[in-house]
Amino acid sequence: MEQKIQELRAAAQAEISGAADLKELDGVRVKFLGKKGELTSLLRGMNQVSAEDRPKIGKVVNEARAEIEKLIADKNSALKAAALQNKLASEKIDVTLPGRKVHCGHLHPLTLTLNRIKEIFIQMGYSVEEGPEVETDYFNFEALNLPKDHPARDMQDSFYITEEILLRTQTSPVQARTMQKNTGNAPIRMIAPGRVYRRDDFDASHSPMFHQVEGLVVDRGVTFGDLIGTLDFFCKQMFGENTNIRLRPSFFPFTSVSTECDCSCPICHGRDSNCKVCHGAGWLEILGAGEVHPKVLEMSGYSPSVVSGFAFGMGVERIAMIKYGIDDLRLFFENDLRFLNQF
Amino acid sequence: MRVSTKWLKDFIDIDCTTEELAERFTMSGTPVENIIRAGVGLEKVVTGCIEKLERHPESDHLQICQMNVGAGEFLQIVTGAQNVAEGQIVPVALVGANLPCGKKISKGKLRGVVSNGMLCSPDELKIEGDSSGILILPEDTPIGVPAAEVLGLDDDILEFELTANRGDCFSVFGLVREAAVLFDRAPNFPEIKVDEDADADAADMIEIKIDAPDLCSRFSARVLTDVKLGPSPEWIQKRLEGAGIRAINNVVDVTNFVMVELGQPLHAYDYEEISGKVLNARRAVAGEQLHTLDDSNRLAKGGELVIADAEKAAGLAGVMGGYETEITEKTKTVVLEAASFNSASIRRTSRAVGLHSEASGRFERGVNEKATVTALDRAAQLLQEMGACKVCKGIVDVYPAPKSPVKVQFTSQQINDRLGTNYSDAEICGVLKKLGFEISEAGAQFDEDFITDRISFAAKHLGRAARELSQNASVDDFVKNIGETVGELINRSGSKSFVTYEATVPDWRNDVELMDDLAEEVARIFGYDKIPATLPKSAQQGHQSAAQNFADRIKNILAALGMNEITSFAFTSAETFDKLQIPADSELRRAVPIMNPLTDEFPLLRTNLVGSILENAARNFSRKNEDVRLFEIAPVFFPKALPITEQPREIQKLVGLLMGRREPKGWAQTSAEIDFYDAKGIVEELLAQLEIGNYSVEAGSHYALHPGKTAVFKKGREILLTLGEVHPAVADAFGINKKIYVFEADIATLIKCAAKKFSFESLPKYPAITRDLAILVSLDVAAGEVEKVIAKSAGKIFSGVTLFDVYTGERIAADKKSLAFNIKFQSGERTLTDEEADAAFKNILAAVEKDFEAELRS
Known about the structure:
Helix content of chain A: 40-55%
Number of strands of chain B: 38
Strand content of chain B: 15-25%
Largest interface: A-B, 89 and 95 residues
Number of domains of chain A: 2
CATH architecture of the largest domain in chain B: 2-Layer Sandwich
Shape of chain B: extended
CATH architecture of the largest domain in chain A: 2-Layer Sandwich
Distance between the termini of chain B: 92 Å
Oligomer: heterodimer
Order of helices and strands of chain A: HHHHHEEHEHEEHEEEHEHHH
Strand order of the largest sheet of chain B: 26-29-30-34-33-32-31
Radius of gyration of chain B: 44 Å
CATH superfamily of the largest domain in chain B: Bira Bifunctional Protein, Domain 2
Radius of gyration of chain A: 43 Å
Largest sheet of chain B: 7 strands, mixed
């Protein structure tokens, strides 16, 4: 009996290890441990065993059973693991295939640039003002100390609708409009972004329509030094902390201490003589500014002996071209998707 | 304006590079746009004498030269040139030279013999001459000096881009005056004096009249006799060439020379040709004939300033002279004109005739009317010095209303307050004096704050001293206290100046009128970079308006929905209206016309954005960008009346466009094209995100859209948005043979219809029950109407309906379509029972059966 059990055990062991898959293994289990299995039938023959041998034989049988069960369980896990392994192996994909593309929208680079400009000035306490694009001669020129026959209002530079109405050539009329709206009350801190129009041919550096941001501060005791600090802060925010500004005296009819403002080239910092943006100059002209001309203050109802102010005007295209290294103005207005998709 | 640096250095001793000079000018408000370099590459080329010449032992054609290059230095140079001989002086490129021809000179050996430089041919120096051999210089050429100097290539030209206010810098003298201040050197201007050596008196020979004193404030003239016309001396020609002016003859050259030197344009008349021997500055009569010196006959518009003789207009004042009185070889007697013309008038005239000259440019900026006589004297002097004329006695000078000098009062406090600086009286007055302003004290002015401050200071201290004295302080202490108080008062007064000064503006500066202008002078001379950067103090909050925020929101939403923002021009044309099929009587054709459009293509301001977005789509399509999703927010313009009498209405519009594939091209993506419902989905999502709800959608019409595929989104009576497929004929007109979907909306209406407040809806606490409803209806039943009826008939527990299938085809009758809805019921108070849902469903079914003759699909 005992020998039989040992033989059975060895046979089970061999069959378990030889089982190729879970189904075969289950067959082995049924064969040895099932109701009609070999070990079970062996147990049924226990009544032929003498009473004193029974405990001993019983123990041997139970041990054999436990061992076979354990072997089956182990084999089961091993087979399952192998099966999973095979399944995973068979599921392998080419991860280098491109992902499914989605249509992605983009804001225009001029909007992105303008948004940043607005952010910078709003955090400095400026409101965002607007004015009409078709302007009167009075607001576009006269209220800005540009009397008739001033060279800057040359017929060749402006699109006229009538003798007295034109497409605004600058966002500066919003200065006068805002001051008149505030009827002599200070402080004023505003920027006025918008489209402006000049009678220029459309080429790499000119466009009959482009965008400007005008700025105006009017208050008691506003100095030229305040303007310098403001422009310096703006350039550092716009182009990076290590940006510097350089001011060159200039002339605008609507400012009295007038300046052109250059910023250091944010691309090469003046270190690359072949720089695509500054061409080695190291400086880039970005805006014109100055203390508000006393006549401009007076015309809009402010007394120059009580308040002073500064104003600045910048081209959004110019800032965007510097920021993104764009070399052709036309790209902004051609709206080629291969261009727009880059922003 | 162009001017040679040598010309400037004739009058001021400046020792700096041309770059430094240009930088100083630019940084003080006289911008140098460009430097035209002379002698680039000749820095290491000097003159040298061939002391010894011998044959190269190893070569037939090479020669070994021992060169004397000055200062006792000798160089051995091997040359292949055959035209050299001992004793000749030639240009020698030293080691390290980087010649204009591109050659770089280094130490070397030629067939074993050391060579330390190169003898240069004209070609190698990029100058004219016989390039078959070395350039042989004249025998008297000094040895060891820069070749550029000997060749006259050391005069750099500065090209100024002057600002409109600085007419005074439109001259060599003006620039020298600036340089004198910038470099703190005294200028040495030439002495201008004339020997009136002709017998005649100018006043007897010519009469000068000003009939239009508002356009001509001064007219001065000199008469020159025995004129010998010929070429002017080389130095004058060179200076003019540097200034970009062609030399013609001595008389004309001198008028140009003096104009560049002093800034005063001059005009020379042939005296014999002046009819009646009178010159009159008067207005032209309309239709008057003008025979100008370019031999063209012009018709006066009337009102232009002309200089006329007794018979006719002899020229357009300040713009172009007359043909008859032009200086010719026959000219024996010359009348020289130096006048001051009204800048606006000159500008109008030169613009009208399309003529911008050196003279008109100066008159436009304004000339110094005080200096006309000086200019005449300078011209007479120069011509006399070259023996080209005799000068008549006297000057005929008509100056009806001499300009009185401009005086500006200021305190240093005012200037410092404007700039944010702390310059002393002495510093400020010093700069202004150097610039030619005369400064005098106009009195001391104490403002009220100052006096109050001083009185209260004195009262406080004296009061305390008196109290201490009454409390038994010693008299010595009392006296000491008083002394300290007085001392402090004096100190405080001294720290702040209240002297009011009066600056008399020099007559050449017509741009300074106000204290602010003086502040600018001070700032630009000390340097803008010396002013401390500060920030204005303010407690103001920054913001943009709700409308601006709304437009920004639309942009962000549409970008998130896969649309690209564009920026297009505001111009359009009647042809575009035709392409868009805008009806002839439509308001959209009543566009604002531009008086002077850039080209005939764009003579109008746009009344819609559809045209421009289609143009942009077409451009992309032609460039093979086929999946196009664009949008723009921009104003359109409508006249209040035509012809235009006032500013037009400007209306902010939104336009969007979609065409191409539903999904981008890819290996596992559908290649299906988008359809109407893709576009509608985007529009619905936009409206949802803008919190615009409870709108209806109806079939509608639009000039540029497919009549059967146009939807109008309405809220009440307001039209929120129109969406549709572009009419195939319109698409074709724009060159696109694909389906395009366009939507347009009015921003103000969207703002009006958007929810003012965002209201949050809590998540449901009780489960929902859903039922599917599949019905057959006739083809012309609008699904939107069915949905409305479902919503209405479902009762309170209705919480939503989704149309999930639409079917037409073989399995149902040809005139029917099948609509399948998923209907959701839910209550905020309790869990619904199936019976409640069934009852609601029955109501719905009854309603759709009644309203649409719908049959339940089994």
